[in-house]
Write a structure and sequence with these properties.
The complex is a heterotrimer of chains A (156), B (263) and C (267). Helix content of chain A is 29%, strand content 32%. Chain A is α/β, with parallel strands linked by helices and 156 residues long. In chain A, 21% of the residues are buried. The mean pLDDT of chain A is 82. Chain B is mainly alpha-helical. Chain B is built from 10 helices and no strands. In chain B, 84% of the residues lie in helices and 0% in strands. Chain B has 2 domains: 34 residues, no CATH class; 217 residues, no CATH class. Chain B is elongated and about 65 Å long. The relative contact order of chain B is 0.16. The model of chain B has no long low-confidence stretch (mean pLDDT 91). Chain C has 2 domains: 179 residues, P-loop containing nucleotide triphosphate hydrolases (Rossmann fold, 3-Layer(aba) Sandwich), CATH 3.40.50; 66 residues, no CATH class. The chains are: A alpha/beta (156), B mainly alpha (263), C alpha/beta (267). At the A-B interface, helix 1 of A face helix 3, helix 7, helix 8 and helix 9 of B.
Chain lengths: 156, 263, 267
């Protein structure tokens, strides 16, 4: 095998390998999210987080603005204390609300942020006051049955 | 000589032998890495080995990747459609390949093709006294013969795994989108939002680098330590494939448990 | 003023684990001599060669090559010594992935800074000395046994060594090839001004080529002398070897029970 042919093949091989890695990184993966920019932290308390997991997305108007970094149990208030990492470039007013939503009907859960009207913005470490917990299916069914029973009793 | 049967003494003797052999193998790889000066000063040697280890493994890796991806496409669609989630096919194919199948299957193929070739080559060089001849000419066979092959293996493995995964995703696309008719847009967009660069792709690359190190180490050591006879070399070649395969699967378990523990 | 003897071996013993291979060996090899070390298979001749080259280290005794104590050399010292040695292996041990040319050029490329043009001239000269200049483009797989040995010889003399070691150079060759190799051993020794040690059990070729013979049996130096001395020796061990006698000190029957017992004769 001539030296130059060998070099050519090896060069092509290495380029193809790096190319494959780039293709995976760009087209397949998700390079934008994941610690690219600086972020600040916000805290929110929920009665029930449902199936929310760390690294779940935080979306506002459907666009990813951050990630859930930690979920802890607050033993005094018996609520869940969720820490959010929000991208530095997005600021939210002090009266914004956070809800736990589900993507699709049975998909993964994420946090939805809705901006309020307050001129002052949340700073790092601030607590989001308005929160709405996850919808728990059993309670929904219980409510439905209860209201059905109440209707039936009214009609009699 | 303790008779090695199924007796307690036999098992004990065999265990001690294995431990001794492992120690010898560890010294061997340490010596190989430390003798890498020649490989750095003469990259020509590494390039030549990269050709034999990497380029010649391309066909089997690419073809296998394509087939694995296509099977994932079929089976994935079949399972997902029972939950009405066909649009998640891209996610399923990509994550399975990038996290697990890419690094593991390509490492297994690499061990059988390139690993066994390295073992046979070095074993034969030992049996035909080429390594002794080299020593006689005051050239250290470890730095001239073993180290370049080591670095070629470690470099080639992640590249091959990436190519396997890329081909696999293409295969999944071929079957899912082109053949079956899953929506192209949701195939790619769901995949992009689900596959995380740092946690999935980089972890896959780290896995394949670890596998490359392990497989190349085992292949080179078995060849170097083979008895210089025909049966010796053939036994060493089989041992390479078997030990490498077990090592890959065991390491995969350890790495997966460590890397994906939070999720 | 260099020593008269290029190799001095004093009281050397070597054992593999508990199995003794060489016991109490004494040899003095003067510069410029061609010497044969002979013995039946397993008598320890190859081990002796390896001790001289520093591949193995003697536990007891001294192995002195060109004034240096081989057992005491560190690996750098041994490598320096080996650059002045040339060794020809039993079946050539050519590097199968390199051409004939590259095999001979190997040591020049590894140990010297000579230009490729210079290396080309030297390689072709060495190949010419062994009669294979026209074969320089072939690969080792394309060579016959005799040709491969000649290329191995050319490779061994690439850096003009002061000491040539031959491990069974005649084994498995046809008469013509054997004649060529013996001739080369003699000629190259004179041309290089070197000393040659030939380990072999080929009696006739060896006795025709060398100046002096050492005979090993069971790891001990049993006889030594000029070829004439060896041919005329009265020692039964030596006579059995030189004249190829079937039975003698080395018995014909493998040791075991008496024939009568195995055939179940006798009460």
């Amino acid at each position: 095998m001539q030296r130059s042919t060998l070099d050519l093949w090896v060069g092509l091989f290495v380029m193809a390998g790096i190319g494959a890695l780039l293709v995976l990184a760009m087209k397949v993966g998700n390079m934008s999210a994941g610690g690219n920019g600086a972020s600040y932290q916000l805290v929110a308390q929920f009665e029930n987080i449902g199936g929310l997991k760390p690294r779940a997305p935080v979306k506002s108007a459907g666009v990813v603005v951050g990630r859930v970094s930690a979920i802890q149990f607050d033993n005094e208030k018996f609520t869940a204390r969720v820490t959010l990492n929000i991208d530095q470039q997005y600021k939210f007013p002090k009266d914004s609300s956070a809800s736990i939503l589900t993507s699709g009907l049975l998909g993964e859960q994420y946090i939805g942020l809705e901006g309020g009207g307050d001129p002052a913005n949340l700073n790092t470490g601030d607590r989001i006051k308005q929160t709405q917990s996850a919808v728990v299916l059993e309670k929904l069914i219980g409510q439905f049955l209860y209201s059905k029973a109440a209707d039936g009793a009214d009609k009699k | 000589m303790i008779h090695k049967g199924l007796s307690i003494r036999g098992i004990g003797a065999r265990t001690i032998d294995s431990v001794l052999r492992l120690g010898y193998a560890a010294r061997f790889i340490a010596r190989t890495v430390m003798s890498s000066g020649t490989s750095l000063r003469r990259p020509r040697l590494v390039i030549r080995e990269l050709y034999f280890t990497g380029v010649l493994s391309l066909i089997i890796i690419l073809v296998s990747g394509l087939f694995v991806g296509m099977v994932l496409g079929f089976q994935g669609y079949h399972t997902l459609q029972t939950y009405g989630s066909e649009s998640a096919l891209g996610v399923l194919v990509a994550l399975s390949l990038v996290r697990e199948l890419g690094p593991v299957v390509s490492a297994l193929l690499f061990a059988s093709r390139a690993g066994s070739a390295m073992t046979a080559e070095i074993g034969l060089m030992k049996a035909t006294e080429q390594l002794s001849a080299m020593e006689m000419m005051a050239v250290d066979p470890i730095s001239r013969v073993v180290a370049p092959r080591f670095w070629a293996g470690v470099i080639a493995m992640p590249l091959l795994a990436a190519m396997f995964s890329a081909m696999g995703i293409f295969g999944g696309y071929l079957v899912g989108v082109v053949l079956i008719g899953v929506d192209e847009g949701s195939f790619w967009s769901q995949m992009q939002s689900a596959v995380d660069f740092r946690n999935d792709i980089m972890n896959g690359v780290i896995k394949s680098a670890v596998f490359g190190f392990a497989v190349t180490w085992i292949s080179l050591f078995e060849g170097y330590d083979a008895p210089p006879t025909a049966e010796g070399v053939s036994g060493a070649t089989t041992r390479t494939v078997v030990t490498s395969s077990l090592a890959i699967l065991a390491l995969d378990f350890l790495l997966t448990a460590f890397m994906f523990r939070g999720l | 003023m260099p020593d008269k003897n290029i190799i001095e071996i004093k009281d050397v013993s070597y054992a593999y684990g508990t199995r003794p291979i060489l016991t109490g060996i004494n040899m003095n090899i003067p510069r410029g001599a061609t010497v044969a070390i002979m013995g039946i298979s397993g008598s320890g001749k190859t081990t002796l060669l390896r001790l001289i080259a520093g591949v193995m280290k003697a536990r007891q005794g001294e192995v002195n090559v060109d004034g240096q104590r081989v057992n005491n050399l560190d690996s750098a010292g041994i490598y320096r010594l080996r650059r002045r040695l040339g060794m020809m292996f039993q079946f050539g041990a050519l590097f199968t992935d390199l051409s004939v040319f590259d095999n001979v050029a190997f040591q020049m490329r590894e140990h010297t800074d000579l230009s490729e043009a210079m290396i080309r001239d030297l390689v072709l000269m060495k190949l010419h000395a062994v009669g294979l200049r026209g074969a320089h483009r072939l690969m080792p797989a394309e060579l016959s046994g005799g040709m491969a040995r000649r290329v191995a010889l050319a490779r061994a003399i690439a850096l003009d060594p002061m000491l040539m070691l031959y491990d069974e150079p005649f084994t498995g060759l046809d008469p013509i090839a054997m004649g060529i190799i013996s001739n080369l051993i003699k000629e190259l020794n004179a041309a290089l001004g070197a000393t040659s040690i030939v380990v072999t059990h080929d009696v006739q070729e060896a006795l025709a080529v060398v100046d002096y013979v050492y005979y090993l049996s069971g790891g001990k130096m049993v006889a030594h002398g000029t070829p004439a001395d060896i041919r005329n020796s009265s020692d039964p061990v030596v006579r059995q070897f030189v004249y190829g006698e079937i039975d003698g000190p080395v018995p014909y029957q493998y040791p075991g029970r008496k024939l009568a017992d195995d055939m179940r004769l006798g009460a």
